[in-house]
Every structure is written in C-alpha cells, then in structure tokens.
Specification:
The structure holds two protein chains of two kinds. Chain A is mainly alpha-helical. Chain A is built from eight helices and two strands. Chain A has a two-stranded antiparallel sheet. In chain A, β1 and β2 form a beta hairpin. In chain A, α1 packs across α2 and α7 packs antiparallel against α8. By secondary structure, chain B is α+β, with helices and mostly antiparallel strands. Helix content of chain B is 34%, strand content 14%. Chain B folds into two domains: 116 residues, Roll (Ubiquitin-like (UB roll)); 127 residues, Orthogonal Bundle (Fumarate Reductase Iron-sulfur Protein, Chain B, domain 2), CATH 1.10.1060.10. The N and C termini of chain B lie far apart (63 Å). The radius of gyration of chain B is 21 Å and the shape is elongated. Chain B has a five-stranded mixed β-sheet. Chain B has a two-stranded antiparallel ribbon with strand order 6-7. The relative contact order of chain B is 0.13. Classes of the chains: A mainly alpha, B alpha+beta. Chains A and B meet through α2, α4 and α7 of A and β3, β5, α6, α7 and α8 of B. The complex binds protoporphyrin IX containing FE, iron/sulfur cluster and FE2/S2 (inorganic) cluster (FES). The site of iron/sulfur cluster has 14 residues of chain B, from α4 and α5.
C-alpha cells in the first residue's frame, strides 16, 4: 500500500492524476455534446417542441447507471481542479518570481500552456454558472415547467428545452458561453496533448498524431457546443 | 559586417550574498565592446572597467560562473534578456557572440531563478541539487576483472544515437531556469534516457528512474506542465521526448516491479 501513496504523492504521480482526470473529462465532453445536440432534433408528429431532448433529459435523470457516472464526473472535476490549483501554487513557489528581461522562449506549445490555471479557473466558474442554470433547475426547482400532456412511467416530463431556449435568448448568457468555450478550446489544445506526454505516450512517432487529434478535438468540441447558444439566440 | 565596436547598456542583477536586502538590477551604461567578443568576454571587460573605477563602483566586480568557455562543461549560466543562455538557438552563454547585439542595446543579465538553485552571489547560483540527482542514480554497474572487449556488447545504431543525443546534456540547468515551474524534468530525463537506453545501463534502469525522480522531487523542483521552454532554450537541444520516455519508465517501473 505504501508504494501507491508514494507514487500518488510523487511529482509524476500528481501529474498522472491531472492527465487521467483531464482525459476523463474530455471523454465526458464528447458524450455531453452529442446528448445536447438533440436539442436540434425535430419532434415526432403531434409532440411538443423539444420532445426528443426532454425525453433524453428525463431518462438521464432516471437512470441509476447515469447517476453513478455523474457522481464520478463531479468528483473528477473537483479533483482535477483542486490538484491543478495545488500544483500551480507549488510550482509558483518552486520558481520564486519572474525575470525582468522580457524575451520569451520559442516553444512549440504556445501561450495556453502557461495559462492553464487561469483558463481552468474560468472553466470552473463557468461550470458553476452552467450547473445553476440547468442542472439545479432540473433537480431542485419545484416550479419547473413540464411538457403539457406527456406522461412517462406515470410521471410528468420536465421541459428543460423551454429553460434552455429562454436562457439562450439573453445576450449576456450567449456571450459568457462563447467566452468560456474559447477558454475550453485553449485549455484543451494544450491539455489534450499534455495528458499523453504526461502518461509517457508521446514520441516522434505518435507525437504529431496526438497533436493533430488534440487540435481537431479542441476545435470541434467547443464548436459543437457553441452551435447551441448561437442557433437558439438567432433562430428560436 | 556592421561596426566592429558597439556600445551597450547592461542591466545586471547585483546581490551581495543570499539575503542581501539591496539586491536588484544595476545599470552599467555605454560600455564599449568589440562585436567579436563572446558574452563572457564582454563581462570580463565590464569587470575590468569596474575594478579600474573602484570609487565609482563600490559594489565591486560582477560574480559569474564559467569554465571551459567552449560550450562543453555546463558551468556558464545567465539569463540574458529573459532567456537562459541568451537568444541564440543551441548556444551556451560562453559561445554567444556580441555580433548578435546592436549598438545601443539594453541587455538584461539575471541569475537562473529556482528555489532549488539557491542564490550565492550576483549571477552565481548553487546548482549542486543536480549533483544530488546524479548521485541518486546516474551510475551503472560494471564487472570487475580484465578489460572487456569493446565490441562484445551489441548496440543498435538508432539506440546509440538516441542515447548520445541525451548524453549531450551538459548539466547547465538552463532547462530549470527557462521553465515557468522551475522543473528539472529535462535534465533528469536526459540522464535517465542516456543511461537507460544502453545495454550497459539496463541493469538498474527501473530503480534508477525511481531514485532520480524522487531525488529531483526532494530538491524542490516544480512539476512539469509540458510547456517546452526547456527544450527551446537548452543549449544542447535536448528533446522533451526524453521527458515522455522518463514518465513511461517511471510509471512502468512503479506498476510492473515487485518492489
Ligand atoms: C471541462 C473541463 C476540463 C477539461 C476537459 C480539462 C482537461 C485537462 C487536461 C487534459 C489537462 C492536461 C493534464 C496534463 O498536463 O497531464 C489539463 C490540465 C490542467 N487543468 Fe484542466 N480540464 C478541465 C477543467 C479544469 C478546471 C475546472 C481547472 C481548475 C482550476 C483546471 C485546471 C488545470 C490545470 C492547472 C492544468 C495544468 C496542470 C499542469 O500541468 O501544471 N482544468 N486539463
Ligand atoms: S537538458 Fe539542456 S538545459 Fe537542461 S541541464 Fe542539460 S544541457 Fe542544460
Ligand atoms: S563555460 Fe563551459 S559551457 Fe560555457
């Protein structure tokens, strides 16, 4: 047992926790995005607007498997954020200040790699806002609207679609979402590759492939999410 | 070629011992130097000037480190305009020439910054934490007895060149100085790779990586954020692929060994 603790407290062990939790969150983002894109699916004949998405949300909140995964997800976000903050504080102390000369090293990883904590804290604040807007309404708001005339397993189905469309009609919400998604893109463009480097999986052969996938992922995932506030703001 | 003689303004970090409350940048303006000089020769000129004008410069000559002055020993250091060993790719401070600077340039000269490299004086810091990392595992076991046949152990060409690339590390500490986290991963991984890749160093490869990493941690270096500043400023252009290789070796030695 002692060796596990020693490993987890070593510099490389601490970084491995960052990379594994980070990659778990990357996987989560794919599923979360695909699930939410159902906002755009047309309702079947005779069903109210947003039917497909609301039924999806209903089943997500009524499955014990999803419940377990989501608790894991909350835990990993908190672990990743806490570990990231602790590592950054430790690193700042190990450095002990900046140089007065202004030259900057010509690195392959650009400015994002030096600002992971800033981007991360922004993401954490965003996650707080986002969960308040939708997750907390779903779970705790007793006046949450329901889809008229739809009963599933003897229960009314909450109309999350309505909440989403109201939220995305407000310009400040759209702007905050787009800024946060830009921060996510920057966090990922470094983070995704960095996680593989930390796990020791990058070399001359795989490095370029990982960098390419990281770039594609960091563009496509935030872009996919961005379609939702933009399309709702402009067209619904 | 441009002017043979130029004037530069030097912004030099002066610190009289580890806890000098008056430590800070001091400006030496209009120093006339020849563009054929190396950076360290330029500092020699500065120090001569300081010694010849004792009354004007009570702080005395600037302390800095050097030895071979031909880019092979790793003794020279300095952060020049914010970059360890200055702006030229793959060049140590002693091999940096003043022809890369222009008349009237302001040049900032600071010591390597890292908690694990404590300040001694002016531009000199104590890099013996690197020696302790080497002592922790930078050795190989050899058989006693007669002189071994040099060709008895086959080493594939690509392995030997990878090991040689890593062995080019001169232990200067610029990677730590360049890193925003003062991480020593590039240095440590260069040593782990150089020894671990070759058959002679395989015997203790698994234990070496654990010992050297744990010594590195104990010395108080920061954690690697994979920024890559080390690789960009390393005078020997050591690749961060070595860092990935060391991570791999550390993780596998933790999970696949029985101790
Ligand atoms: C959707 C959310 C997030 C995802 C997908 C994500 C993903 C990642 C990944 C893959 C890494 C690379 C790990 C490595 O270098 O080995 C990383 C690093 C990092 N993350 Fe996140 N992250 C997220 C949210 C956050 C949050 C909320 C924080 C909060 C403070 C944060 C702070 C950091 C920091 C500081 C690092 C760099 C650690 C270092 O190497 O020094 N991240 N992230
Ligand atoms: S890796 Fe490069 S910068 Fe670091 S100690 Fe070795 S030679 Fe110097
Ligand atoms: S003095 Fe030896 S490498 Fe510069």
């Amino acid at each position: 047992m002692k060796w596990i603790i020693e490993f987890l407290l070593s510099s490389l062990g601490k970084k491995l926790i960052m990379s594994l939790t980070g990659l778990f969150l990357c996987l989560f983002l794919v599923v979360h995005m695909l699930g939410n894109l159902q906002l755009f699916l047309p309702s079947p004949e005779g069903m109210p607007e947003g039917y497909v998405f609301n039924m999806y949300a209903y089943h997500m909140t009524h499955s014990s498997l999803i419940k377990i995964i989501s608790y894991g997800n909350y835990f990993f976000i908190l672990l990743h954020a806490l570990q990231g903050i602790l590592i950054t504080v430790y690193n700042r102390k190990a450095k002990g200040g900046k140089y007065q000369g202004k030259g900057v090293s010509d690195t392959a990883a650009k400015m994002a790699s030096r600002n992971m904590i800033f981007l991360g804290v922004l993401l954490l604040a965003f996650i707080g806002l986002h969960m308040y807007q939708f997750w907390a309404q779903m779970h705790f708001n007793s006046e949450m609207p329901v889809m008229a005339g739809i009963i599933e397993d003897g229960e009314e189905v909450k109309d999350l679609f309505a909440i989403v469309s109201v939220a995305f009609k407000q310009p400040w919400v759209v702007i905050v979402y787009l800024i946060s998604l830009l921060a996510l893109a920057l966090h990922l463009v470094h983070g995704f590759w960095s996680a593989f480097q930390t796990m020791g999986l990058s070399n001359n052969k795989y490095g370029p492939i990982i960098r390419f996938v990281a770039m594609a992922y960091a563009i496509l995932i935030p872009l996919g999410f961005a379609t939702m506030p933009i399309v709702f703001f402009l067209f619904y | 070629m441009a002017h043979e003689n130029i004037k530069v303004n030097l912004y030099v970090w002066r610190q009289n011992g580890p806890n000098d409350p008056n430590a800070g940048i001091k400006v030496y303006s209009d120093l006339e130097i020849n563009t054929h000089m190396s950076f360290l020769e330029m500092l020699d000129v500065l120090n001569t000037h300081i010694i010849e004008n004792k009354d004007k410069y009570p702080e005395g000559p600037v302390a800095f480190e050097h030895d071979c002055r031909e880019g092979i020993c790793g003794a020279c250091s300095l952060v020049i305009n914010g970059r360890p060993h200055g702006p030229m790719q793959g060049t140590t401070t002693c091999q940096l020439h003043m022809r890369h600077f222009n008349n009237g340039d302001n040049i900032y000269i600071e010591p390597f910054k890292a908690k694990a490299f404590p300040m001694i004086k002016d531009l000199v810091v104590d890099r013996s934490s690197f020696d302790k990392i080497i002592q922790a595992g930078g050795y190989i076991s050899v058989n006693t007895g007669g002189t071994p046949d040099g060709n008895a152990v086959p080493v594939p060409q690509d392995v030997s060149s990878e090991a040689m690339d890593a062995a080019a590390c001169i232990g200067c500490g610029a990677c730590v100085a360049a890193c925003p986290n003062a991480s020593a991963m590039l240095f440590t991984s260069a040593k782990v790779s150089h020894l671990g890749l070759l058959p002679q160093g395989k015997t203790e490869a698994a234990i070496r990586v654990k010992r050297m990493v744990s010594q590195m941690d104990n010395e108080g270096f920061g954690l690697c954020s994979n920024v890559g500043a080390c690789e960009a400023d390393c005078p020997k252009e050591i690749s961060i692929n070595n860092i990935a290789r060391m991570n791999r070796a550390y993780i596998s030695s933790t999970f696949t060994n029985d101790h």
